[in-house]
Amino acid sequence: MKAMVFNFSILLYLSAIGNLMAQKDCVLGVGITKNETIIEVFQLNQEQAGQMTNFSAELKYRNEILNNQAKNMMKRHPQGTVAELTVLAEKYNVIRDSMERIQRMIDMRTLKLFNKKQYERYLVLCDEAFRQPLRVIPMRYRDSIPQE
Fold it and tell me: Coil, strand or helix: which one is 132?
């Protein structure tokens, strides 16, 4: 468990090195990071893990569509002049931005499943990685242990 948290912290930390001046979002990486890693690091329950796995599949599906659009655009778009390449780059940036928005949306959905302690762990890891956490209100779960 500690190795998984350490690896996840390293991943977040290394992703922060690229731009220390302006903090970037602290992505969970649902669909990119192995589901098992996120499940273990944040100790997700079975219901949370199932929903996150579905979100991961949704992200992969949406990104596959966008990747196909990018491939088709590369095949069909003229690339003979600087102006044509500039237009191609602008169109590609729109697709890349869409992928980033989808990743953020999926991460936000997953974070909204977290309970208070899971979200606090996320905040600590983001702080260690010098990343700006995505702000959500953690889910409140009823205690599964009956009151006596």
Answer: strand
- Cα separation, 126 vs 108, whole angstroms: 14
Angstrom distance (rounded) from CA 58 to CA 77: 28
The pTM assigned to this predicted structure is 0.75
77-124 pLDDT, tens per residue?
888 888 888 998 899 999 999 999 999 999 999 999 999 999 999 999
pLDDT digits (tens, 9 = 90+) for 42-56: 999 999 999 999 999
Tokens representing 139?
């889910």
- SS3 string, 45-78, reads CHHHHHHHHHHHHHHHHHHHHHHHHHHHHHHHCC
